[in-house]
Design goal:
Elements (H helix, E strand, L loop, with lengths): L5 H14 L2 H11 L3 H5 L5 H16 L5 H7 L4 H17 L9 H18 L1
Length: about 120
């Protein structure tokens, strides 16, 4: 795993537990078939990207964290989080989809698969 150490992940888990976010994020990871460790890591598989994006969406909309705060939690660049969320909203709007907490999983999966199709076509 590039750049993400186990100590960073341990601190990530401690923070999630203290903030009461661990169960919600573990549930999101489970729905996508990945572990919390994979979502925290630099892994780029479609399921991992979808889980990570949904976690970021959940933290910014349901919990009220800013993209900068989410980036710090996940040890990422603020621009990466903001760009991912911007792409999520733009693709959802282009496909005429509304993102709600109940539809976030399906919309994120669709957006990630759309992005993969576009890259393959180029």
């Amino acid at each position: 795993m590039r750049g993400k150490d186990k100590l960073g992940f341990r601190n990530f888990c401690v923070y999630l537990e203290e903030a009461g976010l661990d169960l919600a994020l573990r549930e999101i990871a489970r729905r996508h078939g990945v572990t919390l460790y994979e979502a925290y890591s630099d892994a780029r598989g479609p399921a991992v990207v979808a889980a990570r994006t949904e976690m970021w969406y959940h933290l910014t909309t349901s919990v009220g964290r800013s993209p900068a705060e989410v980036a710090k939690i996940f040890d990422r660049d603020r621009g990466a989080v903001a760009a991912s969320l911007k792409k999520l909203h733009a693709t959802a709007a282009q496909l005429a989809l509304e993102i709600t907490p109940g539809t976030a999983t399906s919309v994120v999966r669709l957006v990630v698969s759309e992005g993969r199709r576009v890259r393959r076509a180029v």
